[in-house]
Amino acid sequence: MSDFSKNNFDLIRLLAAGQVAFLHAIEHFGVAQTTALGKLINVFPGVPIFFITSGFLISASWQRSHSVSQYAVGRVLRIFPALWVCLFFSVFSSALVYSYDTSFADFFTWILAQSSMLQYYNPDFLRGYGVGVLNGSLWTIPIELQFYIALPLLFVFFNRIVNSNVLLVIAIAAFAFIAYAANHLLVDVGVPHTYLRLFGATLAPSFYFFLIGIFLNQNFVVMRRLVAGRFTVILAAYLLTILAASYAGVDYSGNDINPVLIPGLAVLLLSFAYTKPGQLNKLAMGVDLSYGLYIYHMVVINFLLHTALLSGWIGVAVALSVSLLLACFSWLVVEKPCLALKAKLIGRERPVRAVPAPAVT
């Protein structure tokens, strides 16, 4: 196997999922996020990292696919089986301690939304459980699915353009401005929160993350040559940039991080992925727990909060431990078999470069 096909993306995704789960846990179990640890990990926001990484890996997956149907089957098998099992577990665990006081029609509508790509819908009959949303982290799933749908259309368009890099940079800048406007300008002019939430459920405010990932993939050989093995230096530069942003009053952490800081984060991710490629990934022990940890952690947190069993750091530790166990279950029982089924259904993917593209799971 060529060194070009080795990377640390499994570990990157696991760390991103861990960042999201940890911050949610310390928030909901009453541990102050102003702790030094909370501040530090919040400058590596998990959701933007997921979206950038997704743009990089999924665009490579599209280039490897022989057809739209092959690409679609791969994406469906990666997302939905584990999501459906998580939904069953969510309903089962919550029903043990909470009464679903609703009609069959409302319950079925909610289940249908959660099973498709409308996970941001949360009915009133769940407002009394946990934090009021059974699994609020799933708001990113519809956006990710919109990315998947948009990607083939983007490549059809880009393939007709002589210099697609210029167009990509323009698109990144345009959608970065949209993201900044959604987080700041539209709030300042008094746009109702309901409209902002609906707009946030579209791909528009997050699309520039995905486009940056595509840009890195489209310029993979050059970018890898520039950043591979230089993670320590690039990390130091990124942290200095974050420090300068904090002094300048720029949003430098969390999902609302200022768009001007995102290219630096993207370069840092690519550098980490190709610094000691494959060796750091061994820390993930050959399993990919990132998706399972991401989709299960709020289910566990809500159950513990509703039952008032634990609080503080003990609650954080138990919630993360149980979430990791469920992530192991998801990987071994659902995700890994589905990936094997994917290989049988779609066959071998074609290479797209003389230099092998990054491995995609």
What does this structure look like?
The protein is mainly α. The protein has one domain. The protein has 14 helices and no strands. α4 (68-95) runs antiparallel to α14 (312-346) and α9 packs across α12 (262-273).
Series of H and E elements: HHHHHHHHHHHHHH
- The total of beta strands comes to 0
Count, helices: 14
Roughly what percent helix?
Answer: 55-70%
> Proportion of β residues?
under 5%
Kindly report the average pLDDT value: 87
Largest sheet: none
Could you give the distance between the termini? Answer: 16 Å
Radius of gyration, CA atoms, in whole angstroms? 20 Å
The overall number of domains is 1
Low-confidence region ranges: 352-361
Q: What gross morphology would you assign?
A: globular
Give the helix/strand class. Answer: mainly alpha
Question: Which terms would index this structure?
Answer:
mainly alpha, disordered C terminus, globular, 361 residues
In short:
This protein is an all-alpha fold and 361 residues long.
Any chance you could write out the topology, listing elements then pairs?
Elements: H1 9-28, H2 36-41, H3 46-64, H4 68-95, H5 104-115, H6 140-158, H7 164-188, H8 193-200, H9 207-218, H10 220-227, H11 231-247, H12 262-273, H13 290-307, H14 312-346
